[in-house]
Amino acid sequence: MKKNLLFFSAILFSVSGMAQTFSGGTGSATDPYLISNVNDLKELSSMVDTPGEGNTQQTYGKFFRLTQDITEPFKQMIGFEGYFKGDFDGDGHSINLDIDMPTDDYVGLFGTVKTGAVHDLAVTGSVVGRRYVGAIVANPTNEAQLYNLANYANVSSPYSSIAYVGGIIGGIISQSDGTMGGATVSNCANYGTVSCDGGAVGGVIGYSGQAIGNVINDIANYGFIENKGSQRVGGTIGNPMWNDKVHRIANFGTMSCENISGCIGNSNPTDLGEIFYDKQYAHNSFAVTAQEKNTAELTGEQMQSSLGNEWVYADGLLPRPAMGGLENSNLAVLYATPIMLADGDWLEQVTKDFKVSMGNSSYGTVTWTAKNDIVEILSDGTVKIKGNGTEVLTATLGSASRSISLNIGETTGINEVMSDRMTDDSWFNICGEKVSTPSHGIFIHKGKKVIVR
Fold this sequence. Notes:
The chain is mainly beta. The protein is built from four helices and 40 strands. The chain has a 15-stranded parallel β-sheet that branches. The protein has a four-stranded parallel β-sheet with strand order 8-12-16-20, with no helix packed on it. Residues 1-17 and 411-423 have low confidence and may be disordered.
């Protein structure tokens, strides 16, 4: 797998046999170990990797709870070699990640979770690995339970073959192991950018399968998927396999090319249903079982009969998986606040006036601005086209903001804007998000679409 064993041997030796301290708690269900800072996360990582008495997994049957947001970047993983088998409760908080392991496999906040649970957690920042890369769990396996998870981190891999990369989960590999069943993933959403040129790549999950089927339901992607190919690449799941049960899956995010499947990249499961994607955001020519809809058809309560009661619905907003309250953050609400294009238009080819949602009174009013003055946004959300070129619309709610790029005009090629519309040297990805150092992919620079190879 990894893993710089010589480097970590001293760390593992130093903690072997020592009692855990954390920020408090005894590890029971009623008195969990308290995780309050990066040092606590490092202690948990050592606990996972250091065998206990009789070579047992020390986290088995133990409980951990995050007590606050951890904003100091966490630069390593929980479990380099060992399996996490405890219960990690994020308690609605977030962890800021800065994991940079481009030559390593099984990379994420958690390496491998087996029989354990990770839930009610959000992550931000950046995660880079080679194969099996996911912001929260790289490789969940037999009887892992993952639910109420939100990813805002950017996840990437330089690998060009089958890579197993997802916003939340890299690859689920459940093997025959006695009477043990597969993993369960539910009520999760990705908001970050997932970037990889290889296969088995998805907004939420890269790959799921092997000998024992997994249960996946009520998950959604709102982020940007960047990939040059179409081999098992999907807006939400790259590649679910035969014995998986996959239901109530949606993609409301954007994609870098038309060859990416709208929701699922390869639909092998026999138990598959309620699969949807926004065809105006995720325009594609790659046909895999799913139901495509215009953005306006997805808003409000229109999808409740299809997606069910594990989702949150509100006027003017896209559905959101219920995630123990994580779905109500300002940024989550912004990603669910859509641009509603005219029928037949999509983000890369906008030819008619359109509307933007102004949000919902329950969550606050969303304000919109246009960077390049190519469109005019009226007070009722109507957007009037004034010219051709690349426009970047920014939605703001409280202190949170989100930008998205549109191509205004008949052509999908490189478009010019007047020089006085965009005179700075900023670079934006296809979602309109500003980037400091563009790597490979499609970017907007001085009003032009630029392919960086």
